[in-house]
Amino acid sequence: PLGSRPTIITINEDSRGRIYFGTHSLIGIKASHALFYKDEINNTLKRFDSPNNQEIKNVYKATTDHLDNIWIFAANGFFRIDKNKNIHKEKWPIGEFLSDQYYSTIKCDSKGNVWMTSSSEIHSVLSVWNPNTGKVKSYPLKESFSKINNEFFITQMEFGSKGNIWLSTSYGLMYFDQK
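The chain above was modelled as a monomer; its predicted structure follows.
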């Protein structure tokens, strides 16, 4: 049936120009092997087959860092694909990985830090994680507004040229100054 087709929910590019597509099933079925890439040599879409047989299901968001790692939020965890195409299931840096939370954005800065946002019925958070040291710093967002209800969520994150962060949200635009 048409409703069971996976939806491409994120598109990402590594430094070699390879385009990755993350898929997500919208009917409650977890799409197995939910990561694809464009093979430029054969001009085809190919399923990303992991040499270590690690499976990624229902990709929510992905980003690439300066070392060509691809960081992925998925229904079955938090993953990193290294430049040798090995998939590593990473320990979730912010407590327990809860698949019912909405992990809405992920982006790496020029220093290798991984920035991410998550939303739940209780709170929305902007967090920065340094994969080298394991340190995490979180900034609650929903609590920043006096009359926010459960419909607050973040849709996109972008870094400004001066190190600030722009967040598009269900309540408009937010500006985050790291200073």
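The mean pLDDT is 75.
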